[in-house]
Design goal:
By secondary structure, this protein is α+β, with helices and mostly antiparallel strands. The protein has one domain: 3-Layer(bba) Sandwich (FAD/NAD(P)-binding domain), CATH 3.50.50. It is 31% helix and 27% strand. β15 and β16 form a beta hairpin. The structure holds flavin-adenine dinucleotide (FAD). This is D-amino-acid dehydrogenase.
Length: 425
């Protein structure tokens, strides 16, 4: 790469959020350069469950957290695994997370997220149509399955909030679960079928197709990691491992790496990496197909169909340093549970995949202009819903960069809410 490259705007990070932003910015006639190391599997957007749901409005920091806290701290709940040694490094995040786990805040977050998640599926349809991946997006709904009546009852507040916001769902009893998803061999007491939900088969293929779309629009890819952002008199200097690019504006969309990059400008965000794993299995030849993603709440894991009768088994959350060595405890447990839920063959890949959800403690992304620097837009922290809300975030970013009012209100996603924490690390 030449060291004197210039662009109107540089997008840092080529996952779902960065690519969608780069494409939407090209659509507005800007000269766009996208910086990314270019390793497909390094993107969280590659390895997720593919769920695109209007109902994904309820952050992890739920009021139920308080009851589960003792089990979480002992690593006795499959949905969360803590590296205790890492906790001091994420204290601001953890403190903010606990503060968010109140019913009133949960309701407020749901209200703020609803316009974003409501716009997510249509934005996916628009993008998939242009990228030629429309057949990978299927509106099959998704199932949240409960093994016991007690577990279903414990989720009553979630259903109340979803119903209050007009999110469509059906409650299924055990027999109806079996009828809806005959591939499930485990008996479930109840399930919630979120009918407005779709899913992307092989999200990695969508990402590849978006890269091709961006290139076809004349977008430039600069391979390499951004090491530093610096404000200059005329605009921005973006330092990569090899070379420099200058631009009038920058979009920081580097997923879970965004917090570290923002620090080069003095922003200390209360964010963390919520790591997650997946592994693929073939369905037994005599099993009916799995038609939609299933969240097995008892296992704290998701089973997602990826096409060709392949099932992606996904683990819950591991709170750990982004670059710590993999810990396969959760994905091994999820795989054992999956073997009792579906008729599966052996694993199809040698090693489980590992990725990091770019997580904020209140479960809402950071989308907005940087409070202390002109020409810098933050677009990260999409946590559990970044595949879903990436395409609409891209459209919002393009609005912000070109001085338009975003179609989706973003005041609740303002960066400064996560900058008000003491410098503990
Ligand atoms: C197990 C699991 C299941 C999930 N399931 C779902 C789901 O069903 N639905 C859903 O909506 N979401 C889901 N998610 C979350 C979703 O995958 C993420 O929110 C989303 O992928 C984040 O997109 P992103 O573009 O912000 O980050 P990423 O996809 O991680 O992209 C960030 C990019 O920035 C690049 N980068 C990093 N550092 C630098 C640097 N210094 N310079 C330049 N580039 C850099 C990276 O290489 C990467 O390409 C899941 C996540 C996990 C882990």
């Amino acid at each position: 790469m030449a060291s004197d490259e210039t662009a109107d705007i540089v997008v840092v990070g080529g996952g779902m959020v960065g690519l969608a932003s780069a494409i939407a910015l090209k659509d507005r006639g800007l000269d766009v350069a996208l910086c990314d190391p270019g390793e497909a599997r390094a993107r969280t957007s590659y390895g997720n469950a593919g769920v695109v749901s209007r109902g994904s409005i309820l952050p992890m920091s739920s009021p139920a957290l308080w009851g589960k806290l003792p089990a979480y701290l002992r690593n006795a709940d499959r949905s969360l695994r803590l590296n205790h040694a890492h906790l001091p490094r994420v204290l601001p995040y953890a403190a903010h997370f606990l503060a968010s786990a109140r019913a009133a805040r949960w309701r407020r977050a749901a209200e703020a997220l609803l316009p974003l998640t409501s716009a997510a599926y249509p934005a996916h349809e628009r993008l998939a149509a242009r990228a030629g991946t429309g057949d990978r997006l299927q509106r099959t709904g998704w199932l949240k399955a409960y093994r016991t009546e007690d577990a279903f009852t414990a989720a009553a507040l979630e259903r109340e909030i979803l119903a209050g916001h007009g999110v469509a769902f059906e409650i299924l009893d055990g027999a109806a679960v079996q009828e809806a998803e005959p591939a499930l061999v485990r008996p479930y007491a109840r399930a919630m079928l979120l009918t407005e939900t779709g899913s992307v088969r092989e999200p990695g293929r969508l990402i590849e197709a978006c890269e091709a779309l961006f290139a076809g629009l004349g977008g430039r890819r600069l391979r390499g990691s951004v090491t530093r952002l610096a404000r200059e008199a005329e605009g921005w200097r973006i330092d990569l491992e090899a070379g420099t690019v200058r631009a009038r504006q920058v979009v920081l969309a580097a997923g879970a790496a965004s917090g570290a990059i923002a620090r080069t400008l003095g922003y200390r965000f209360a964010v963390a990496a919520e790591r997650g794993y997946h592994r693929h299995y073939a369905l037994h030849p005599e099993s009916p197909p799995l038609t939609r993603p299933v969240l097995d709440t008892g296992a704290g894991s998701i089973l997602s169909p990826m096409g060709d009768r392949r099932v992606r088994v996904l683990s819950g959350v591991e709170l750990n340093a982004r670059d710590a060595a993999p810990d396969h405890t959760q994905i091994e447990a999820a795989s054992r549970e999956a073997a009792g839920t579906l008729r599966l063959g052996g694993p199809l890949d040698n090693e489980p995949w590992l990725g990091s959800r770019p997580s904020t403690p209140d479960g809402m992304p950071v989308i907005g202009k940087a409070p202390r620097h002109d020409g810098l837009i933050f677009a990260f922290g999409h946590g559990h819903i970044g595949l879903s809300t990436g395409p609409i975030t891209g459209e919002i970013v393009a609005d912000l960069a070109t001085g338009r009012t975003p179609a989706v209100p973003v005041a609740a996603f303002a960066p400064d809410r996560l900058l008000r924490w003491p410098r503990l690390f």
